[in-house]
Amino acid sequence: MDPLLAVALLLAVALAAASALLVRQGRRQARLRRLVGAGSGVDVAAATQALVVDRDQARQQVAQADQDLGQLAGLLGVGVLRFDDDLRVRFANPAACAFLGREQGGLDGRSALEAFADHEVEALLLAARDRGASGGEVPPHGEDGRALLIRARRSPWGGLWVALEDVTNLRRLERIRTEFVDNLSHELRTPLTSVRLLTETLARDLDDLVVPDRVRDRVARIDVETGHLVQMVSELLELSRIEAGGQQLYLDVVDMADVVRSSCERLQLFAERQGVRLEVRAPAGLPLVRGDVERLGQVLLNLIHNALKFSPAGTTVTAGARATPGEVEVSVADQGPGIATQDQARIFERFYKVDRARVRGMGGTGLGLAIARHIVEDHGGRLALDSEEGRGATFRFSLPEAADLAADREDQPRSAQPAGSSS
Ligand code: ADP
């Protein structure tokens, strides 16, 4: 069950109890008013008796609601905790106790730090108490530790509701998938590289022989397809490394206008072949950002290459960078076929291609945008798409300005060496 739904259910039960109380209180007041309105003939004993009965019924209802709440919380596979404003546990369902390695009732009265034994979780709960909501994930601690997804919301009546979702299995499966793809890509890369080299040699050998053209064509096609496979395998390897958190960014201060310009220069020939005009809108003197110049260049190359690839001849692709408050926004806009709304949510998934029939024969692995999204997110940005079918597409992302770093650009040594040389 969605943890938020679970918390919503619990809140609903609590609200039902509270509203029942209010209704009962309203009735009680109406009854008293009736009694007092009766003037001198007020029967105080009867009024007191009625109040006592009301109070007892109200208490019973609260106790029932409490029991209901406990029963419902006991059925949930999601951990539910109620903290008071001092961040002490006031309620914990069995799943929460199990996730945190405690006996039933073993969390009652414990502080957030005692319950989770983790300062970061304590900080997360404090943030929810002070700002209204927060969330995060705790990686597994120790041998049997669980990976827990935590969502915390401040309650309107004080304290916090906290939902815990056990994502240990999900994370394990993700790790297995990443390792599998990583191993498979490694295994495929060596024989594929050999096939590619052999095909190239074969093509050269054919130059000295008299063979029918169709043989030459076939060898050329084998070469193209092998090249495609080699590219796919290396992109898969790169993606699995990024997903496993193995991507190291070599941070430096970067002028995004330079990155946009150099990416466009590299793709100018391709643009001419496609018959598409490639326009650069990147003024000098933009604020600098903090980033890995190789990786950011890779993102731009991918976005501009896609824009050119999908644009019809005679149209324009515009790559730009501009200053926005506190940030530098980079965008690549084309006048191509655009991307339909239903595809936009999936466009950054690995291997997703819109209309496979249309893009067949255009090359491409369907991995480029997935990689680009990771790289932008690792820089603290978000890669967004703005498009309408038939009306072009604009991809953009923003990076925070690194104004404080601009001054020491000359003096500061690079935090690390770049991964490869720029070309
Ligand atoms: P590739 O281009 O290698 O297939 P990408 O991950 O870069 O892989 O892109 C995924 C899919 O998104 C493409 O196959 C294409 O269907 C769609 N796409 C990407 N960019 C554009 C664009 N500028 N205009 C239209 N469709 C695009």
Task: Please give the count of helices.
Answer: 13
Shape: elongated
Q: How much helix, percentage-wise, in residues?
A: 40-55%
Mean pLDDT across every amino acid position? 85
Low-confidence stretches: 406-423
Strand order of the largest sheet: 2-1-5-4-3
Structure description:
With 423 residues, the protein is an alpha+beta fold. It has helices spanning 3-37, 44-75, 94-99, 112-116, 119-131, 168-207, 213-243, 256-274, 293-310, 341-344, 356-359, 368-378, 403-406, and strands at residues 79-83, 89-92, 133-138, 148-154, 160-166, 252-254, 277-281, 289-291, 316-324, 327-333, 384-387, 393-400. The strands form three sheets. It has a five-stranded antiparallel beta sheet, with helices on both faces. Strands 7-9-10-12-11 form a five-stranded mixed beta sheet, covered by helices on one side. A two-stranded antiparallel sheet has the order 6-8. The radius of gyration is 32 Å and the shape is elongated. It starts with a helix and ends in a 17-residue tail after the last helix. Adenosine-5'-diphosphate (ADP) is lined by residues 302, 306-307, 310, 334, 336-337, 339, 347, 352-354, 359, 364-370, 393.
Quick overview:
By secondary structure, the chain is of the alpha+beta class. Helix content is 52%, strand content 16%. Helix 7 (213-243) runs parallel beside helix 12 (368-378), helix 8 runs parallel beside helix 9 and helix 9 runs antiparallel to helix 12 (368-378).
Keywords:
single chain; 423 residues; 5-stranded mixed β-sheet; 13 helices; 12 strands; 16% strand; binds adenosine-5'-diphosphate
